[in-house]
Amino acid sequence: MAVFRSRDERRNDALRRETLDSVSPGMRIAAAWSWRILVVAAALALLGFLIVQLRMIVVPLLVAVVLAALLVPFKNWLQRHGWPKGLAVAVSEIGVIAIIGGLLTLVVLQIRSGYPALEKRTKSQYDALTDWLHGPPFNLSDKDIAGYLDQAWKAIQADSSNLLSGALDIGSTAGHFLAGILIVLFSTLFILIDGKRIFHWLVRLFPKKARDAVRGAGESGWLTLTRFVKVQIFVAFVDAVGIGLGAFILGLFTGGFPLVIPIAVAVFLGSFIPVVGAVVSGVLAVFVALVFLGPVPAIIMLGIVILVQQIEGHVLQPFVMGTAVKVHPLAVVLGVAAGGFIAGIPGAFFAVPAIATLNVMIGYVARGEWRTNPHPDLRDVTTDVR
Fold first, then answer.
1. How confident is the model at residue 273 (pLDDT cuts 50, 70, 90)?
2. What is the pTM of this model?
């Protein structure tokens, strides 16, 4: 049966065809991409706004997920060796608390024992430096030195304000800090106890046709996150041993200055914050060497720090980290910089694992692997031992 259209409808169709013909194909494609990019950007902006508003919950939850990525394989290993699930969960969580608490306690005790000597040597080195600046060729007065120090301190404060803002926002009060610790502990505990059921519940929130893709992407992302945590601990251990051994050889463990262990622990913990942590911990090691041993050992310590970081950057990161998470070093640097600018220390800390996990998940879905490989080979990473 013929379809009769009014004159106005025919005129409108002709006008639309004329309008489309007047726009080049390239412009139509650009317009189609533009509105899609705007929609994605708006969604990301909304997500970022929600994260910022709920940062007191989101950041501890992310820390718990990272800890769980380390502890779940250990818990499963204990279960495979005959441990009851409850005991395996308890040992996993209490063990990590004991290790972190032990490291921090050791650092505090070592610093307390070495602080009087550090204070005395710092004052002595400062007096020697000011005496040297008073003489030729500088001929600076005490007022000039105080002014330069004040300018340097203001510059440091200005440069570090953005970086520290995230940490200050998260732990601005003792109550907020305690609440964050409790969220981390309880979230880690429940992920260890019932992580698989929580994940399946999240998958069921998506449409039925998309669940296979979401499930496979989530499992592949979890595998990548687990590998990242293991490799990051190994890299941090290598940095701590290298710089700590260099400090020991230089003699920072002798003469009543037992600061090698705090330096090694600071390097180990700082390595979990890419780029920033390595720089801060390296500066600490060089400063201690300068105060206790003088300029020449400080230069040697600087060389040791640079050597260890070069080994990390050119050997460990490309071959070990690159193989584990498959992220280009440029993406790591830009991600850390962007994360630090947007969210301070938490942003720098979570940038690399977030990029690595999202990279694997998006690639898994884009390649259509969920059709042929709905369950990536996770081995002991997420296997739930009954």
1. low
2. 0.71
pLDDT level of residue 22 (50, 70, 90 thresholds)? low
Instruction: Write the CB contacts of 374 (distance below 8 Å, at least 6 apart in sequence).
Output: 212, 215, 216
Kindly state whether residue 261 falls inside one of the protein's structural domains: yes
Asked if residue 13 belongs to a domain, the reply is no
- Asked if 207 and 84 count as a contact pair (C-beta separation under 8 A), the reply is no
Q: Radius of gyration of the chain from Cα atoms?
A: 28
Other Cβ atoms within 10 Å of 373 Cβ, number: 14
How many separate domains does the chain show? 1
Q: How far apart (Å, rounded) are the C-alpha atoms in residues 333 and 335?
A: 5
State pLDDT tens for residues 151-169: 776 665 555 554 445 444 4
Phi and psi based region of residue 167 (left: phi greater than 0; alpha: psi -120 to 50; beta: remaining): alpha
Question: Tokens 């570090």 — which residue?
Answer: 160
Which residues 6+ apart lie within 8 Å of 60 measured at CB?
179, 180, 181, 183, 184, 187
Q: Tell me which residue range forms the domain holding 310.
A: 54-372
Domain membership flag for residue 75 = yes
Would you say residue 17 has pLDDT above 70? no
CA–CA separation, 346 vs 15, rounded Å? 55
pLDDT one-digit tens code per residue, 234-256: 888 888 888 888 888 877 654 44
With helix as H, strand as E and coil as C, how does 176-206 read? HHHHHHHHHHHHHHHHHHHHHHHHHHHHCCC
- 27 in any annotated domain: no
Residue 345, Cβ density class (10 Å: 0-12 exposed, 13-18 middle, ≥19 buried) = buried
